[in-house]
């Protein structure tokens, strides 16, 4: 099927096209490029649900006024170790790049730092922000965000809490950094687009429809009508509640209660970012060596016949990123087609991308 064709396109070429699209929506070049880089990063790491597939949705929300195209950050409260920021309804990715830099700076100065953000919007793949916090291998990174309610309570028949993703990134030495990036639901809402594109049924037991009945049909309802089941039952639900407390409660933001749909009137999103400087606790080189040794231990664990050696958190994504750097970012044909159509709707010249779609 044509929808399953995978194209290989350079990182900067994709960022360039995406940036033009967002500039046409009223964003300045710097912010449009930042948002675009976050989406391309997700595709490079194999997190397709948070990649370029989201461009039409972001454009629609910018046009409808759900997001402000201008991102302005205000400092609400600050100490040497902590900051509370107001995002003023700006783009979550733009807000987060700035919050990450502030958190890194304070952690390097003081050993540990925590930044809480309110008044923001969807910030993309959580793993990007913990990865950026830890990328120089001197800091442990953590981030979390709340989200519009989409996850049912255990035994619930409707939306209860957000998927509230969180991510930890741990510096390694010879290996790529560990990076755990998960939400409290069975799978990201954006993956419904992927299953629709591929014509595949949704995983059993992952989703309900608005009627409370479990469904595997990705075409049966509008994407915003699906209700996600929590992973691990009460464990996933409990983690989601705690992440709400780490984000909106600490930032003085809005709790995301029963609220459906993406509209300009929906509650604004809150995030948090934390960094810990390794040498404030132990010798940094020794720590990274210990992480490497533990990864070697994980790789050597016995497995059943037919199974591969265990992977540490982030190992698969790091391999995807290396492959993307070498061979180009994998982009589904349909995703690039949608990008091109969106760009043409903004009267942009995208004739150069026809070579990929012929």
TrEMBL record:
Acetylation is among the record's keywords: no
Keywords in alphabetical order: Oxidoreductase
Gene Ontology MF terms in the entry: oxidoreductase activity
Family annotation (PANTHER family): MALATE DEHYDROGENASE (PTHR11091:SF0), OXIDOREDUCTASE-RELATED (PTHR11091)
Stated family: Belongs to the LDH2/MDH2 oxidoreductase family.
Protein name as annotated: Ldh family oxidoreductase
Source organism (scientific name): Qiania dongpingensis
